[in-house]
């Protein structure tokens, strides 16, 4: 055989092997609550990339806050023959049905960022969400010795919203009980809608404009509250918390209308979830699942990642340094 023929033979063999390596070993269904928010678009892209690196193809759907649609999407994924489901539940109770249906077909389920309750969930991957609420409340408590406050939570159907509030009250309740803080309003924004938060803030401002802090549980609700404050000329004069380090929130922070956000490095979350998914599919031990979170039925093996406070003083060292947002995008 000539040298040229041998070269072509090995080149063909190499390409054939490469093609085999690139073929996905597993099919993963990724069920999101929404893709209308910047946060979840990032999660989708990061998780898909991280899973693909590990030999898994990801099929992505979003239910847009519709419980029945999320159940139908899960059933469609199972009918398609996916090997594992990763679910961001709209309703943590209702999604227990997804876990039971998946287990009946031998398919395991990971709850991504939000806990699925009262079922034999296989794994929970999230941030320390009680800690998120504590960080928000500590930020206010360190800057406000006493005053009137408003609490605006997220969707009560989202277990994370309850955990954020638990963390907030771990810090705030002693100050409320001692009379240092007076709660003007305590409300929840359905489906985390900024318009809901704006409405609640407007109602609080009808009661009084003497408000020193708004503990908003995420950046969307913070943005809605700030719109209402701006109508009264109070934007920038009231402490406002947030979460997710959304670009709009980071821009408000440097502008001075939002005080802080809680940055959750979602690239770490996506990587941890993808790594765990492939370990589960390979019947390996999920090495990073060193925590346990009770979901009402069992202690679910869990991976919990530490969140980070971001304000004007450290925005360069956190979200910008990580490449989460560019300096130009935030400051221009």
Describe the protein in words.
46% of the residues are buried. β3 (84-87), α4 (96-104) and β4 (108-112) form a beta-alpha-beta unit. Strands 2-1-3-4-5-12-11 form a seven-stranded mixed sheet, sandwiched between helices. Strands 7-6-8-9 form a four-stranded parallel sheet. It has helices at 3-22, 38-53, 67-80, 96-104, 129-141, 159-177, 194-207, 219-231, 247-255, 266-281, 316-320, 327-331; strands spanning 26-32, 56-62, 84-87, 108-112, 123-127, 147-153, 181-188, 213-216, 239-240, 261-263, 291-294, 299-305, 308-310. With 332 residues, the protein is an alpha/beta fold. The chain folds into two domains: 25-121 and 265-306, Response regulator (Rossmann fold); 129-264 and 309-331, Rossmann fold (3-Layer(aba) Sandwich). α2 crosses α10, α3 (67-80) runs parallel beside α4 and α5 (129-141) packs parallel to α6. The longest helix is centred in the first third of the chain and has 20 residues, at 3-22. It starts with a helix and ends with a helix.
């Amino acid at each position: 055989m000539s040298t040229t023929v041998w070269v072509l033979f090995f080149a063909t063999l190499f390409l054939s092997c490469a093609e085999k390596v690139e073929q996905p070993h597993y099919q993963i269904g990724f069920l999101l609550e929404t893709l209308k928010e910047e946060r979840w678009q990032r999660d989708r892209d990061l998780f898909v990339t991280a899973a693909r690196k590990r030999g898994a193809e990801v099929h992505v759907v979003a239910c847009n806050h519709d419980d029945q649609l999320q159940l139908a999407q899960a059933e469609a994924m199972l009918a398609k023959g996916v090997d594992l489901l990763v679910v961001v539940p709209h309703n943590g109770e209702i999604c227990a049905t997804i876990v039971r249906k998946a287990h009946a077909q031998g398919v395991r389920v990971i709850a991504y960022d939000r806990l699925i309750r009262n079922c034999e969930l296989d794994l929970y991957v999230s941030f320390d969400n009680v800690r998120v609420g504590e960080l928000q409340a500590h930020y206010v408590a360190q800057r406000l010795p006493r005053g009137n406050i408003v609490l605006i939570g997220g969707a009560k159907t989202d277990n994370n919203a309850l955990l954020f509030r638990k963390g907030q009250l771990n810090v705030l309740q002693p100050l409320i009980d001692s009379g240092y803080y007076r709660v003007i309003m305590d409300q929840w924004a359905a489906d985390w809608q900024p318009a809901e938060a704006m409405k609640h803030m407007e109602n609080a401002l009808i009661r009084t404009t003497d408000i020193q802090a708004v503990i908003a549980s995420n950046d969307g609700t913070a943005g809605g509250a700030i719109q209402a404050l701006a109508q009264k000329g109070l934007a920038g004069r009231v402490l406002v918390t947030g979460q997710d380090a959304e670009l709009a929130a980071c821009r408000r922070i440097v502008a001075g209308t939002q005080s802080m956000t809680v940055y959750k490095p979602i690239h770490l979350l996506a990587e941890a979830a993808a790594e765990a998914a492939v370990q589960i599919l390979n019947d390996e031990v999920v090495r990073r699942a060193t925590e346990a979170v009770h979901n009402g039925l069992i202690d679910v093996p869990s991976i919990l990642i530490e969140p980070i406070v971001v304000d004007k003083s450290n925005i360069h060292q956190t979200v910008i340094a990580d490449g989460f947002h560019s300096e130009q995008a935030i400051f221009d």
